[in-house]
C-alpha cells in the first residue's frame, strides 16, 4: 500500500525560523527573509495539488512576525527622525 503523506514546505519553516530570529539575533535581515520566504511558501502551497504541500500556518506566522518587526522598525526610525528634528530645533532657539 502506497500512502503519500503531504510534505511541509521548506520555505514555510524558514519563514517561521527567521521570523523568530528577527526578534532575537537578526533584526532587519531576519524580518526581510521571513517576509520573502513566507510569501513564497504560501504561493508554493497554493500552486501545489491539494493535500501535497502543507505549512500555510507556519508561513503565515513567519509573515506576521516579519511584518510586525518591519513596522516596529519603521515607527522607531520615524521617532528617531522626529527626535533629531526636535533636538536641532531646540538647539537653534538657544
Name the beta content range.
under 5%
For the largest beta-sheet, the strand count, sense and barrel status come to:
2 strands, parallel
How far the N terminus sits from the C terminus, by CA atoms, comes to: 84 Å
Low-confidence stretches: none
How many strands appear in the DSSP assignment? 2
How many structural domains can be distinguished in the coordinates?
1
Shape: rod-shaped
Radius of gyration, CA atoms, in whole angstroms: 20 Å
Query: What is the mean pLDDT?
Result: 92
Structural class: mainly alpha
Order of helices and strands: EHHEH
- Which strand order spans the largest sheet, edge to edge or round the barrel? 1-2
Separate helix tally: 3
Write the topology of this structure.
Layout: E1 7-8, H1 10-24, H2 29-47, E2 53-54, H3 56-92
Helix pairs in contact: 1-2, 1-3, 2-3
Explained architecture:
- The chain is mainly α and 94 residues long.
- The chain has one domain.
- The chain has three helices and two strands; from the N terminus they run βααβα.
- The chain has helices at residues 10-24, 29-47, 56-92, and strands at residues 7-8, 53-54.
- Helix 1 (10-24) runs antiparallel to helix 2 (29-47) and helix 2 runs antiparallel to helix 3 (56-92).
- The longest helix is centred in the last third of the chain and has 37 residues, at 56-92.
- The radius of gyration is 20 Å and the shape is rod-shaped.
- The model has no long low-confidence stretch (mean pLDDT 92).
Amino acid at each position: 500500500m502506497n500512502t503519500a503523506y503531504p510534505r511541509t514546505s521548506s520555505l514555510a519553516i524558514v519563514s517561521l525560523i527567521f521570523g523568530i530570529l528577527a526578534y532575537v539575533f537578526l533584526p532587519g535581515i531576519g524580518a526581510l527573509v521571513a517576509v520573502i520566504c513566507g510569501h513564497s511558501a504560501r504561493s508554493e502551497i497554493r500552486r501545489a495539488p491539494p493535500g501535497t504541500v502543507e505549512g500555510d500556518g507556519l508561513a503565515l506566522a513567519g509573515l506576521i512576525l516579519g511584518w510586525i518587526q518591519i513596522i516596529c522598525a519603521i515607527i522607531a526610525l520615524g521617532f528617531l527622525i522626529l527626535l533629531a528634528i526636535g533636538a536641532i530645533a531646540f538647539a537653534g532657539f538657544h
